[in-house]
Write a structure and sequence with these properties.
Layout (H helix, E strand, L loop, with lengths): L1 E6 L2 H10 L7 E6 L9 E2 L7 H10 L4 E4 L2 H5 L2 H7 L3 E3 L3 H8 L1 H10 L7 E4 L2 H11 L3 E5 L8 E4 L2 H13 L10 E5 L4 E10 L3 E3 L4 E2 L2 E3 L3 E4 L4 E4 L6 H21 L5 E11 L2 E8 L6 H8 L4 H10 L13 E9 L11 E2 L2 H4 L5 E5 L2 E3 L5 E3 L3 E9 L2 H12 L7 E3 L5 H7 L1
Helix pairs in contact: 1-10, 7-8
The chain binds adenosine monophosphate and glycine (GLY).
Glycine binds next to loops.
């Protein structure tokens, strides 16, 4: 079959890398892709948010199956448009994608279905929001309601910080329309984990879990980013916790969405806080995590394509996926300056050297390859150096050995990805 992947990040490189080896895949396209994806797929210069362009391309190329990587086209209704054109795809329709597209939708949904999550209030004007946080006190969490590329959340440790975040979102429009409404949440204490489940509208299948590092600096300090690294397995999500998360969070969500007339299909990614009271939902995403997808694909032993198609067809009950017992780690290399402003165009060398080891795959995110073959940085997060090893410590060692073979003065990475899991090994 002909498969089209939508997106251009490390997540989509990992998906293309996995899909390309499926016996079901005869031809693989990616819109728009990047320099690394071009080694797995035919890249077509259509932006992930150009819904008309994607539907037209899929129709003209007689694409059999479209796999949507990022959230924006899902929230904007790409799957609805593909459905209307008779083209199968992986991902939720716009109504179900509201689980990621609107934090207030999700919080209110959780309330209706008794899904454990932080207590919250929603505000669209500054004065009442300020009054509320002064009553509640710090620490407290302020979130822009809409999509803001992982950057619309302030975990305020002091009231002054919380006030500044509210002023930025509600008075100064720092997050544009996404922040014209804010959700203010109770601060939860615990260990975070990324939990993934495939969903076909009614059936669910948990995948292996992962943990990511959202903050830019070593020791998990500094501003939040889209994700500076990830690893799998996640020790906090053992078999018993998986069963509990399925029972208390994932299953009621899938049943609730179906009961409300918005059945969810695709991958449901629950950002969890494992608290003393048990697992609590921080947020839902309606697509694979980036960079969590890179470590999941590194551990996947089965063909992914039948599972993705089964989500569309409502046939997930007949699918099984097998995972490598090895650990996997992905260290993100980003352009100096990220998550603030950063230049484009810095040259990167040594990529072939870095991926000599069979256990290593260098997934590309924001990269371009010039006519002379030179790879340059073209975004904030640029590479995801991914390694497998018998345990997380070994995987980490292999990943950093590979990174040390990459010559990129214009980029940086954290040097401690996986530290929490390694500490646990003792
Ligand atoms: P989100 O974009 O909602 O995943 O939030 C980004 C990050 O902020 C999360 O990964 C957590 O580290 C942190 N965070 C979000 N909500 C809370 C909360 N209610 N309590 C504590 N930390 C939170
Ligand atoms: N790694 C966090 C995310 O994909 O949202």
């Amino acid at each position: 079959m002909k498969i089209l992947v939508i997106g251009s990040g490390g997540r989509e490189h990992a998906l293309c890398w996995t899909i390309a080896i499926s016996p079901l895949c005869d031809a693989l396209y990616c819109a728009p892709g990047n320099a690394g994806i071009a080694e797995e797929a035919i890249c077509v210069a259509i932006a992930a948010t150009n819904i008309d362009g994607i539907v037209e391309f899929a129709r003209s190329k007689e694409i059999d199956f479209v796999v949507v990587g990022p959230e924006d086209p899902l929230v904007a209704g790409l799957v609805d448009r593909l459905d209307a054109a008779g083209i199968k795809s992986f991902g939720p329709n716009a109504a179900a994608a509201a689980l990621e597209g609107s934090k207030s939708f999700t919080k209110e949904f959780c309330q209706r279905h008794a899904i454990p999550t932080a207590a919250f209030q929603r505000f669209d004007s500054l004065e009442p929001a300020l009054t509320y946080i002064r009553q509640q006190g710090a620490p407290i969490v302020i979130k822009a309601d809409g999509l803001s590329a992982g950057k619309g959340v302030t975990v305020a440790l002091s009231l002054a910080e919380a006030e500044a975040a509210l002023v930025a979102a509600l008075r100064d429009g720092a997050f544009g329309a996404a922040g014209s409404q804010v959700v203010i949440e109770e601060f939860m204490i615990g260990e975070e984990a990324s939990f993934f489940a495939l969903v076909d509208g009614s059936h669910t299948m948990p995948l292996v879990a992962a943990q990511d590092h959202k903050q830019v600096g070593d020791g998990d300090i500094g501003p939040n980013t889209g994700g500076m690294g990830a690893y799998s397995p996640a020790a906090v999500i053992d078999e018993a916790m998986t069963a509990r998360v399925m029972k208390e969070i994932i299953t009621p969500t899938v049943e609730g969405m179906a009961a409300e007339g918005n059945p969810f299909k695709g991958v449901l990614y629950a950002g969890l806080m494992i608290t003393a009271k048990g697992p609590q939902l921080i947020e839902y995403n309606v697509r694979f995590g980036d960079p969590e997808c890179q470590v999941l694909m590194a551990r996947l032993k089965s063909d992914l394509v039948p599972a993705l198609i089964a989500c569309h067809d409502g046939q997930l009950a007949h699918v099984d996926l097998r995972w490598d017992d090895d650990a996997a780690i992905c260290v993100v290399m980003a352009t100096n300056g990220y998550p603030g402003s950063y230049p484009k165009g810095s040259p990167i060398s040594g990529l072939e050297n870095a991926s000599q080891d069979q256990a290593v795959t260098v997934f590309h995110a924001g990269t371009l390859r010039g006519l002379d073959g030179q790879v340059t940085a073209n975004g904030g997060r640029v590479l995801g150096v991914t390694a497998r090893g018998g345990d997380i410590r070994l995987a980490q060692k292999i990943a950093y050995q590979a990174i040390d073979r990459i010559e990129w003065p214009g980029g940086f990475c954290r040097r401690d990805i996986g530290w929490r899991a390694i500490d646990r090994l003792g």
